[in-house]
């Protein structure tokens, strides 16, 4: 992982190259052993702050000779790029694949001449045509609608919702790479200004500049790797695409169910979860969708915050999540899962010799999940 910050002066390519170099050194590989690159969502010329670096940029900058690479937004969310890399190495298309996600949204907002904001149009096209007529211009709006439904139907409270942010801040305070350095109290949370009911300021992640890299290697190439390997035991993903017939449930639910169809592991085997939290409600959809609690019980599962704390039954977002670490846009959860399974978490390391973790990304109209194991 590169430096993590807000409005960094480093270029997005510079951050990406830093993270790639660190990942390669950690794996004990050399550049000439890398023969694949995967990223999400690929370079987006119309929205460079969101995704300024593509697979081609990394291949060119390092002079890589690749046999396979991919970068696209039309997939099952951010961690889908890692699942695609796993499929490629299993099919023999590559042996060592660099998977990365680079975000530069905070710096881009401060430098609009270099990183133009998205064009404002009079017509409504793409995904916007399904949400803009209803005033849901931001992901905060439509995620808030799912959260409000949980409040009305199942009794979710803001005090329960707050436990996600409070837990994230507590863990981020122990993470030297996180942008949040102080714990969060319930009183501070409850007094914060509202963004999109029921979300307040602390329920929403903030734009961050960073690059995160994971290297996926083929099973028969592990003799070339000089680090503790973590196995992708299963993956799943789904897309509940925008249309006139809106999905009743976020895509975390079908993705969570499908994950267990691809493995002999079960919910009780999981030692830690790293659940996407662009908004504080999203981990609730993942807890329910993955089966850690029944649908509608996510709020009560979070009650008091003890169950998801680092010393709780199910340590969650141990690095601080996106609300505390920064908006690393999904890849930070795979990174932290590996850190915990290797026992390299330092002050934030959970006890009990963790061996199985779940990492997720997305959870609204698209979602992806990885089940990771240290054998």
TrEMBL record:
Residues 257-369 form the Thiolase C-terminal domain. GO terms for molecular function: acyltransferase activity. SUPFAM superfamilies: Thiolase-like. InterPro entries: Thiolase-like, Thiolase_C_2. It comes from the Bacteria. It holds the Pfam family Thiolase_C_1. Gene3D superfamilies: 3.40.47.10. This is Thiolase family protein.
